[in-house]
Amino acid sequence: MPERAARRVRFSLSGSMGYDFEGLVEKCALAEALGFEGFYASDHLHGVAGAPLQTPFLEPFSALAALAGRARGLRLGVLVAGVTYRHPGMLAKLAAALDAISGGRADLGIGAAWSREDHVAYGLAFPELRERLERLEEAVELIRGLWTHERFSFSGRHYRLVAAPLAPRPVQARPPILLAGASPRLLRLAARHAQQWLSVSTPRFAARCVAAIRAHALAIGRDPAEIAFAQSSALLLSDSRDEVARALAARSRTAAAAGPAGGVADTAQRRSALPDESPEERARASLLAGNPEELRAQLERYVEAGVTHFVLQTPPPLDARALERFRREVMSAYL
Fold first, then answer.
1. Where in the chain does DSSP place strands (E)?
2. I want to staple 251 with a disulfide (CB 3.0 to 4.6 A). Which of 5, 63, 101, 283 is the partner?
3. In the Cβ-directed half-sphere of 218, how many Cα atoms lie within 13 Å?
4. Which CATH class for the 3-334 domain?
5. According to the model, what pLDDT value does residue 45 have?
6. pTM for this structure?
């Protein structure tokens, strides 16, 4: 095992799009049996990323609350709650309720939101990225205030609370906040408030973001060791070079079509790579693909960049055999 791999590396599963509730129960049971740390549900209003609009998509906090009594060994969270979908006071209440129901196992993932289609379909305002990041900054401060004060008032540019109570309070004194995204502004926000930062990045880009967050943390007197760094990627364990090549080619085409700005480039994947990195490298940022030896090499590049948590997207149908093999031949090297 590589020397760096001796550091504790965690693995979780994500992805609820396309699953009905019983499918999520099965997925969480498998995750728990195989030693994954957590399960993260998606937060969208309908199918995204090319999925049919009628793809099943359970509201994440409702689904996680129902799963909490069945998946008693998993941390549970949303990857990630779009700040534009709910008032942050309601988001604080939902996360606190999930923490209470799960006995202190809730993580709150939150981001600036990216799916314009969600907002248009449901009549939600979709402001420019700068305003969404402003809202995210205010939301994190507001949520922390509600969680830690008997009554909390807040007056920001976008949100306002007047002596608001929150009961029940979270079981955890400070439920972990996971911030997703890679804009310079978000990296500064993560350094100040996050217990975990997550992106869909190439290893080189992830290393740059990790270094920036650590530097920002030191500048404000925060211990960078308080912040974990996570990578979210789909998983394809396959011995077939043709299958892997087809999957990577499809993602490369999407990355190339996105370009440097606009369209898909304005989503969470906009800042996923360095300017000199190719569409193929960007494709591998969102897909870990290959045989076990190749997957271990890909993971190690992220570990060297500072990543210690891999959140693996596993779309339906659930492939239990592939996950069992991943646990046995890849994940076991880091446990």
1. 10-14, 38-41, 75-78, 81-82, 106-111, 151-155, 160-165, 177-180, 196-199, 228-237, 287-290, 309-313
2. 283
3. 6
4. alpha beta
5. 87
6. 0.93
